[in-house]
Structures are given as C-alpha cells and as structure tokens.
Amino acid sequence: MKKLTLEAAAKDEGQRLDRFVAARGGLTRGEARKLLDRGAVWVNNQRVKIASRPVHEGQQVLVVIEEGGRTVPATQALGPERILFEDGQLIAVDKPVGVPAQATLASDRGDLVALVSAHVGREVGLVHRLDLETSGVTVFAKTKPATTALAAAFREGTAHKRYLAVAVGPLPAEGRCELAISPDGRRWGKFRALPAGKVPAATRYKVLARFGDACAVEVFPETGRTHQIRVHLKALGAPIAGDDLYGGPKEIDTRAGRIAAPRVMLHARSLEIPHPATGAVMKFEAPIPDDLRAMLEAVGVEAGVL
After folding, report:
1. Which of 15, 82, 132, 258 is deepest in the core (most CB within 10 A)?
2. Strands 160-168 and 135-141
3. pLDDT band, very low/low/confident/very high, at 214 (cuts 50, 70, 90)
4. What gap in Å lies between CA 128 and CA 67, rounded to an integer?
C-alpha cells in the first residue's frame, strides 16, 4: 500500500482538492477523482470525497493508493445465501474471503459493514471483526442497545467462537496458549506473542487430523485480540497454511498430493452468543468454503466432523 502525504502550501490556497491531489501527487485528474470517490483521500485525518472542496495552507492531505495489482472490492449486494440469521436486533452473516470487515484507509466501498448496512437500510453496529482473508460468522447489531449488549458479550467472554484451520508444524494433540499479544514494531500491521504484556490472550485448540507436518485444527479463542489465532499458532510452531505474514507455507503435502494455500486457511465456523434482547443463547454456523474444506479433508478430517 502506497501512501502520499502532501501538505498544502500558500500557493495551493483555495485550489480544488482533485487538482491539488493530481498536481502534487503526480496523478491525472481522473485518477485523483477515482481515489476521492472510493474514499482514499484524507484531509487532516478526515476522509473527504468532494472533489471541489478547496484546500487551505497547512492542511495535511493523505492519499492511499493500492499497489501490487490489488484492487478494492467492488460494491455488491449481500446475497441471501450469506445471511445466516436476522431479526429486529441483530443480523448474522457469512463473511466472504477477501472482503474487509470495515472501511480501510484506501476505501470505504465494498467492506462488510457497508454491505450489511445497505441490506438493512441503515448503519449497523460493528462489534467484532474477521481478518481480510478469513471467512465465516460475523454478527452486527441493528440498534444501539443491541450494539452495547453484543459488544459486552465479546468483552466478557460469553460469546463462544469455533474456528477451523490448517496449520503446519509439530502441534501437540490439544492445548491452550496464553501468550500476550503485542504489536510487532518491526512491521506495521503485524503482531507477536509475548510471555506477558498489557494485552493478555488465550486460545484453546484441538488437532482433528494430521498428514505429515500438516494438521487440521479446531480452534476456540477465549479472547478477541487482533490476529490472535494466527499469532498463537505461529508461536506454537505451527503457522496457518497460506499465512504469509506469519510464515505459513503456500503449499502443503496431503493425502491428495500437494495442495496450494492461496490465502490464510482460517474460517470462523460457528458462534454462540446471548441474544441482545432476550438473553437466549443463539448459535450461528457458516458453511466451510470449498478451498478450505478440500484441504481439511485431504489432511484426513472426516466430513461429518466439520
């Protein structure tokens, strides 16, 4: 991701924002307008999408440009097959792989919050997040009281999550990791596990099947830290297949031969959480994506276990 930080000088006073971004950023006006339209331009830490807005001396303008062939997901409707449950208080959906949980610096289009809000007809409350390449159950609140109640369930540990993953390494049959999670100062967006820290974390896991170094794993995070499962499995010597950030291999050997891992092979299979209004325990399950199911079964998991 490329970021341009531009400061408006006296000579830029009153200039249209699209012209300023184009001239100072080395872009065409068309490119500048596209960046504005998708929400990739920030003025003094506020997202701005109005091309004609004048800039003023001293303002800081941040322009975020996607690189490496990556594109912002196109705005799309949330298909009925993705809706797991909906009532007046909450909506549970199956997050697709590659859709960001919320707006990013580079775009406020095509993220899951926007898609669910468009389906509901008003802005929904985000109470937890899945990583970009992780699929599965995500819940959103439809009212302010529901947002408060659901957020409390995640914070207090009454929301119970079950994930499925394919990891590679000498992972014991089952166990619990209690290493704290901390940002890794060597790389933005990466985290590391520490024996102790300000952000405690706990993850239980159980190996379902093995083939060579590969293992199919059932994971139960007891806390909800950023990248928690990925960091804890890495710390245990078994990073998730396809997880470039934490050293996961791009291919694994299985009973079906060598299989590619084009993404982080992690899926939020189910979630149990008290209903925000009634307190009744609700359980939501998301279908396993085809690529992960094939890999899990190739490692040796019986279909009925999943």
Report:
1. 82
2. unpaired
3. very high
4. 27
Distance (Å, rounded) from C-alpha 120 to C-alpha 127? 16
Helix H, strand E, coil C: the string for 208-274 is EEEECCEEEEEEEECCCCCCHHHHHHHHCCCCECCCHHHCCCCEEEECCEEEECCCCCEEEEEEEEE
- Taking only the tens place, the pLDDT of each residue in 144-178 is 999 999 999 999 999 999 999 999 999 999 999 99
Cβ atoms of residues 82 and 94 within 8 Å: yes
Q: How far is CA 297 from the centre of its chain?
A: 25
- Nearest residue to 268 via CA among 253, 282, 283, 287: 287
Phi–psi pair at 279, nearest 5 degrees: 85, -5
Instruction: Enumerate the active-site residues.
Output: 131
Domains along the chain with CATH numbers: 2-65 (3.10.290.10), 80-305 (3.30.2350.10)
Question: Which single residue is written with the structure tokens 């276990």?
Answer: 305
Q: What is the dihedral of CA 202, 90, 133, 205, to 10 degrees?
A: 30
Rg (CA), the chain: 22
The Cα angle at residue 30 between residues 27 and 36, in degrees rounded to 5:
85
Q: Please count the residues of the chain.
A: 306
The identity of residue 276, as a single letter, is P
- Please report, as a single letter, which amino acid is at residue 198: K
**pLDDT band at 3, cuts 50/70/90?**
confident
Mean pLDDT of 224-252: 97
Q: What is the mean pLDDT of the chain?
A: 90
Sign, Cα dihedral of 267, 114, 29, 52 = negative
DSSP codes of every residue in 72-123: PPPP----GGGEEEE-SSEEEEEEPTT--SS--SS-SSS-HHHHHHHHHTSP
The residues pairing with 207 across neighbouring beta strands, listed in sequence order, are: 217
